[in-house]
Design goal:
CATH architecture of the largest domain: 3-Layer(aba) Sandwich
Strand order of the largest sheet: 1-2-3
Bound molecules: iron/sulfur cluster
Number of helices: 13
Largest sheet: 3 strands, parallel
Low-confidence stretches: none
Length: 331
């Protein structure tokens, strides 16, 4: 039996190329090695302001786009977090072994609370978010968790929670390891400054058409040394070149790197090559997404099957946990 791998997907609307390069594309490479569980974490979405009327649709869209982008439902389980209530049940138990001090040290909590528009947005769910995340992972005794660099601290806390539970109640949970991809762990946005994100509006959506993608690449930040077409540049410090490394074949990468250093090509030429190669990756995904959109029952079936399987797996762990912590069994 292969070990479980767990990964959470935010149902946060449009999926962008940063999500694809940093997450989806790396997961696909892990399908042979692990038994993967991919969970659309809708309860996590409640910790920040969100549109109640769009949540269900966005949850469905997240499933659809991830399948279109390469998550083969025959080789993994894809499900919605709230369809398996044991996630929140185990999170409550973990709340009772997690020190407040550990949670208050979480960088993501500090950043999110600093960004919050008002005090009322800093809710207890935002504070205990990593506990629910630990529950997502440990509920399945997953041994591997692919994450971006910004999530490493949360996985360290998950291991700490497993250790604390095991020390108090006996050996129950394995300590999962994080898998941080060598490439794509931190994809910068088109502003070249911050991580690509929808909220910063510095992203290219996975389902954007060719015209819209070009409209975004046009003004994207490049090496500031290339003021004039005749000024040579340094591709290694240019975000457009990093995107070439993710989307372009080696010969195009070499061509643009040399052209940049010698001022043999301009930034517009360089971006046109990137645009062509990027659309070469995005268009097949967009075609698959359109086909799934025309048959939504295919996505619903995948989510139903995922929830059924995962609820069974989760119940096995919860029976063990309830017994370990001394709850009275229902007759
Ligand atoms: S030529 Fe390409 S790699 Fe060089 S600065 Fe312009 S966009 Fe960046």
């Amino acid at each position: 039996m292969k070990p479980f791998l767990f990964s959470g997907i935010q149902p946060s609307g449009e999926i962008h190329i940063g999500n694809y390069l940093g997450a989806i594309r790396n997961w696909v490479k892990l399908l042979d090695e692990y038994d993967p569980l991919f969970c659309i974490v809708d309860y996590h979405a409640l910790t920040q302001p969100y549109d109640r009327d769009l949540l269900a649709q966005r949850t469905f869209d997240a499933a659809l786009v991830n399948i279109a982008a390469g998550l083969d439902p025959e080789r993994c389980r894809l499900f919605v977090q709230s369809h398996v209530p044991a996630h929140t049940e185990l999170a409550w138990v973990f709340n009772t072994v997690t020190p407040m001090g550990d949670l208050s040290r979480m960088t993501q909590f500090k950043e999110k609370s600093q960004r919050a528009e008002s005090e009322s947005y800093i809710n207890a769910g935002l504070f205990t978010y990593p506990v629910l995340q630990a529950s997502d992972i440990l509920l399945y005794k997953a041994q591997a968790v692919p994450v971006g660099e910004d999530q490493i601290q949360h996985i360290e806390l998950t291991r700490e929670i497993a250790r604390k539970f095991n020390a108090r109640y006996g050996e129950t949970f394995p300590e999962p390891k994080q898998i941080v991809p060598k490439e794509g762990a931190r994809i910068l946005g088109l502003d070249g400054k911050a991580k690509m994100s929808k909220s910063l509006n510095n992203y290219v959506g996975l389902l954007e058409d060719s015209k819209s993608v070009w409209k975004k690449l046009g003004p994207a930040v490049t090496d500031p040394a290339r003021v004039k077409r005749t000024d040579p540049g340094t591709p290694e410090i240019c975000n457009i070149y990093s995107l070439h490394k993710s989307f372009s074949p080696p010969e195009d990468q070499q061509h643009v790197a040399e052209g940049c250093r010698t001022a043999g090509i301009g930034c517009v030429d360089c971006k046109k090559i990137l645009h062509k190669n990027m659309m070469g990756v995005l268009e097949p995904i967009q075609e698959k997404a359109a086909a799934l959109r025309a048959q939504p029952e295919r996505v619903e079936e995948v989510l139903d099957r995922g929830a059924r399987d995962c609820a069974d797996l989760a119940e096995r762990t919860m029976e063990e946990v309830r017994d370990r912590i001394g709850l009275r069994a229902r007759r």
